[in-house]
C-alpha cells in the first residue's frame, strides 16, 4: 500500500513545479539574458513583435539590465538568487512529503530549464504527471504561459502520461490558513499595524478587460484572508505592485498607496504579497527595501514586510494536498 490508498506498481507519479525564473548571477549580462527570454514571451507582452522586439533589444534591455542587476545584488543570498533558493527548498520538502512521487523543479525563463526537467521526469517512465505552476492566482501572463511552454515541449514526445494542470489555488482553505498564520505571527512579533496591505503583482488593465480573471482571483484571496483574520476589514487594503511600461495597469498602486498613508495619520504598516509563492526581487527589493524607504520618507514610522510562504511547513502541506488531490 502507498500513500494514495492503493497498491499499484504499474503507476509512476510525477510533479513538475514551475516558477517564473531568475538571473543566474546578479550581473547585467545575466539579467539581460533572463529579461530577454521573459519579455519576449507573447503571454507576458503581447504587442506586435515587429514593434516590440526592437524596443526590447534596442532600449529596454541595455538600460534596464544594469539597473536591475544592482537591485539583485541588494538581495542576493550566499546560496544564490532568493527565488531559486526558496524554490529548491520547496521542491526538496515536497519530495520528502511525497516519497512515492518524483518531484522536479523548472523555471519558465531560466535554470533549471523546463525542457530538461520534463526530460528527467519522462526518463522515470512516469504514467501520471501533475503540473503545478507556482502562481496562487491564475493569469494569462503566468499560469497560461506555463501551459504554452509545456505544450510546445510535449509536441516532441510520442508517448505522454496522463496530465493534470493545477490552474491556481486562490481560495484553497489550506493556502488561506497558511497566509493567515504568517500574518498572525507578524502581528505577534511587531504588534498590530494601522494598516495591513495585501499587495499583488499587477497586470495590464487590458488583459483583464479581454477576459483574464486574475483580478477576480486576487479579490477572492483578499476576501478570504481578510475573513480569516481577527483584524478590522476597514484597515486592510488590496493594492497592486510592479507596474511596467506606459499602458494602464491594475490599480491602486502599492507604492503610491504607501506614500500617501502617513499624511492620513497611518504610522505602522505591514505588507504581505500572497501572489508570490517564494520571495524574490519583487518582494525583497521592491517591497522590503524600496517601499519601506517610500513610507519612511513620507513620514511613516514602522514598516514590516511579511515574508512569502517559501518553505514554511504549512506551505509544503498545501502543495502536498494539491498534488494528492490531483493524483486521486
TrEMBL record:
UniProt record, GO biological process: heme biosynthetic process
Keyword Cell wall biogenesis/degradation: no
Entry binding sites for Fe(2+): 201, 282
Reactions accelerated catalytically: heme b + 2 H(+) = protoporphyrin IX + Fe(2+); Fe-coproporphyrin III + 2 H(+) = coproporphyrin III + Fe(2+)
GO cellular component, one term: cytoplasm
Assigned EC number: 4.98.1.1
Alphabetic keyword roster: Cytoplasm, Heme biosynthesis, Iron, Lyase, Metal-binding, Porphyrin biosynthesis
Main location: cytoplasm
Compartment(s) where it occurs, according to its Swiss-Prot or TrEMBL record: Cytoplasm
Listed InterPro entries: Ferrochelatase, Ferrochelatase_AS, Ferrochelatase_C, Ferrochelatase_N
GO molecular function, one term: metal ion binding
Record carries keyword rRNA processing: no
Main EC class the enzyme belongs to: lyase
Pathways involved: Porphyrin-containing compound metabolism; protoheme biosynthesis; protoheme from protoporphyrin-IX: step 1/1
Similarity field: Belongs to the ferrochelatase family.
Purpose of the protein: Catalyzes the ferrous insertion into protoporphyrin IX.
Protein name: Ferrochelatase
Species whose genome carries this gene: Candidatus Gullanella endobia
Amino acid at each position: 500500500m502507498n500513500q494514495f490508498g492503493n497498491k499499484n506498481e504499474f503507476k509512476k507519479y510525477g510533479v513538475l513545479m514551475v516558477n517564473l525564473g531568475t538571473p543566474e548571477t546578479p550581473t547585467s549580462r545575466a539579467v539581460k539574458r533572463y529579461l530577454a527570454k521573459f519579455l519576449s514571451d507573447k503571454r507576458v507582452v503581447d504587442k506586435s513583435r515587429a514593434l516590440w522586439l526592437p524596443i526590447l533589444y534596442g532600449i529596454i534591455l541595455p538600460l534596464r539590465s544594469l539597473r536591475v542587476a544592482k537591485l539583485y545584488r541588494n538581495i542576493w543570498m550566499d546560496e544564490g538568487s532568493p527565488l531559486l533558493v526558496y524554490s529548491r527548498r520547496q521542491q526538496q520538502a515536497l519530495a520528502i512529503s511525497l516519497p512515492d512521487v518524483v518531484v522536479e523543479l523548472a523555471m519558465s525563463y531560466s535554470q533549471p530549464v523546463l525542457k530538461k526537467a520534463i526530460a528527467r521526469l519522462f526518463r522515470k517512465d512516469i504514467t501520471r504527471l501533475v503540473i503545478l505552476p507556482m502562481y496562487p492566482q491564475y493569469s494569462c501572463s503566468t499560469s497560461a504561459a506555463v501551459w504554452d511552454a509545456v505544450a510546445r515541449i510535449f509536441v516532441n514526445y510520442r508517448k505522454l502520461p496522463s496530465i493534470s494542470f493545477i490552474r491556481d489555488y486562490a481560495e484553497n482553505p489550506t493556502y488561506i490558513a497558511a497566509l493567515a498564520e504568517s500574518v498572525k505571527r507578524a502581528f505577534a512579533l511587531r504588534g498590530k499595524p494601522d494598516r495591513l496591505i495585501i499587495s499583488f503583482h499587477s497586470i495590464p488593465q487590458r488583459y483583464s478587460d479581454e477576459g483574464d480573471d486574475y483580478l477576480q482571483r486576487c479579490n477572492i484571496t483578499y476576501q478570504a484572508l481578510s475573513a480569516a483574520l481577527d483584524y478590522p476589514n476597514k484597515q486592510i487594503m488590496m493594492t497592486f505592485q510592479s507596474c511596467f511600461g506606459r499602458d494602464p495597469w491594475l490599480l491602486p498602486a502599492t507604492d503610491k498607496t504607501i506614500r500617501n498613508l502617513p499624511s492620513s495619520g497611518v504610522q505602522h504598516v505591514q505588507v504581505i504579497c500572497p501572489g508570490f509563492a517564494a520571495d524574490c526581487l519583487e518582494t525583497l527589493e521592491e517591497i522590503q527595501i524600496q517601499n519601506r524607504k517610500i513610507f519612511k520618507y513620507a513620514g511613516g514610522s514602522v514598516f514590516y514586510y511579511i515574508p512569502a510562504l517559501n518553505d514554511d511547513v504549512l506551505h509544503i502541506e498545501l502543495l502536498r494536498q494539491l498534488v494528492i488531490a490531483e493524483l486521486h
